[in-house]
Design goal:
This protein has about 475 residues and is of the alpha/beta class. It is built from eleven helices and 22 strands. About 25% of the residues lie in helices and about 25% in strands.
């Protein structure tokens, strides 16, 4: 019997983990695609300052690509066929999109799920008041913010006002160059001795985040009106939007940083914008599905969720059954026998990329990074096997087998990727929507873009990483396993 030929040992380079700047491996002509995609993303990020705006822009892009309303198809009784493109909305905030694949739904789905809500300030139910002859808006912060970052910053007002008669008025002030902006005042350093001695988290209080709206008293107010500045603000809002003070009770008004996203750096290699977390991943998932060239083998799903920043709760959060109900609607249109059993099989056999951002190693704050497990700018997509806090609390912790599958998919598509953790052990932590999908028994892993200044009013992302996220999600949808 002949001796077996020994295989050659791997090249020395392959023995080590990848650690290269992604720009060094871009294919010829790919930088042009990178720049084009980032320009489109910057436009989206600048326009989508709230989850409602992100939802509406996503629906418009989907419909332009031939997506149809799933509920309308159900009413018409139209069957689903491979290549059919559908979407389903939950209260104008959360969005489910699907491209029906060649395999039966029972064989599982390829899911990319991100969120479109971001940390911000929300107007309270009774927000408008006058003090010291100035008009102010009382707010309650939403999500994890550093309160001191929100003072002395140009702010805009976005949202909707719903009236009892059924009309919904859209509000947007502070984005058009002709618009005024708003601000939360800060204390001057000359009088800030006591403030400076407080802990950073206490220097600005939550109740102190009151937005300055105006200071000019109404000249036409009745003499019995004591709060003439507040009256003037109400008169201006009524003239522009037809709303009254009582309408604040049925309003959702969000205060966000004013102004568009911008290119960052002399080399224009980064993007500075509000809401990268997590519209950067949500948009990449949307575009990855919309830009598929062929009918995928497995049905591709994109989830653009609300309420992630406060625990994914409520009707529009990932902890609701909206996703499960939407998959059930797909099965109903496919005329599936034993729909409840097939639904369970479908979900259990699915695979998901939890599309959420991660942290980058920041040379300004090296003490919080885990040296060998910190993601770096321009190294590509960040794959996080687990997130959570301290002892991985709140994490779904992806399996080794699924990690290998994702490596295969990304390598085959030329996606630059890296492994990363959310800082040092016991330094802090955070969660994503991964655990809400993992409960169905499906394979899930977190996969997103690394950021500087996460949860700040203005966050930083690298263009290369932004583009690689799009490539990664698109490859995942196209994968035939």
């Amino acid at each position: 019997m002949s001796a077996k030929k020994k295989s050659a040992p791997p090249a020395a380079k392959t023995l080590f983990r990848r650690d290269e700047n992604g720009y060094t491996n871009l294919k010829k002509g790919e930088e042009r695609k990178l720049e084009a995609y980032c320009r489109e993303y910057i436009d989206f990020l600048s326009a989508a300052k709230t989850e409602r705006e992100a939802h509406d822009l996503a629906v418009a892009e989907a419909e332009a690509k031939g997506f149809q309303n799933l509920d309308a198809l159900r009413a018409e009784g139209k069957p689903l066929e491979p290549g059919t493109k559908v979407y389903r909305s939950c209260r104008g905030k959360t969005l489910f999109l699907a491209v029906i694949g060649k395999h039966a739904l029972a064989d599982g789905l390829h899911i990319v799920g991100g969120h479109t809500d971001s940390p911000r300030l929300d107007a309270k139910p009774n927000p408008l008041y006058e003090d010291g002859e100035i008009a102010l808006l009382d707010t309650h912060y939403y999500g994890g913010i550093k309160k001191y970052q929100w003072v002395a910053l140009p702010l805009a007002l976005h949202g909707v006002v719903a009236k009892p008669g059924g009309e919904t008025v859209t509000v947007s002030i502070g984005e058009d160059p002709a618009d005024p902006v708003f601000v939360i005042t800060d204390l001057l350093p000359h009088l800030g001795k006591d403030q400076a001695e407080k802990k950073l988290s206490e220097g600005i209080s939550g109740e102190g985040l009151n937005v300055l709206l105006g200071s000019r008293p109404a000249s036409d107010a009745d003499k019995d009106v004591k709060e003439k500045v507040k009256y003037q603000i109400l008169a201006l809002l009524n003239a522009r939007y037809g709303i009254t003070e009582e309408d604040f009770a049925s309003a959702e008004l969000e205060i966000v940083p004013a102004g568009p996203a911008r290119e960052l750096g002399l080399d224009r290699s980064m993007i500075l914008g509000y809401g990268h977390d997590d519209r950067i991943c949500a948009y990449a998932g949307l575009r990855g599905l919309l830009d598929l060239d062929e009918v995928p083998d497995y049905t591709g799903i994109v989830l653009l969720c609300d309420k992630e920043e406060i625990g994914s709760v409520g009707a529009t959060g990932m902890d609701s059954v909206f996703f499960e109900n939407s998959v059930a609607e797909l099965l109903a249109l496919a005329d599936t026998a034993q729909p409840e059993l097939v639904l369970r099989r479908c979900l259990e056999r699915s695979r998901m990329l939890s599309a959420d951002v991660n942290v980058l190693h920041d040379p300004n704050y090296p003490d919080v990074s885990s040296p060998n497990n910190a993601a770096k700018l321009n190294r590509g997509v960040v794959i996080a096997k687990y997130t959570g806090a301290r002892g991985k609390s709140g994490s779904s912790d992806a399996s080794a087998e699924f990690m290998a599958e994702i490596r295969r998919v990304f390598d085959a598509a030329g996606v630059a990727w890296q492994m990363g953790e959310l800082g040092k052990v016991d330094q802090g932590g955070g969660g994503t929507i991964a655990m809400f999908l993992a409960r169905y028994g499906m394979d899930v892993v977190d996969c997103g873009v690394g950021l500087f200044s996460m949860h700040a009013p203005w966050e930083v992302a690298g263009k290369l990483d932004t583009y690689m996220m799009y490539k990664a999600y698109r490859a995942f949808f196209a994968d035939a396993r």
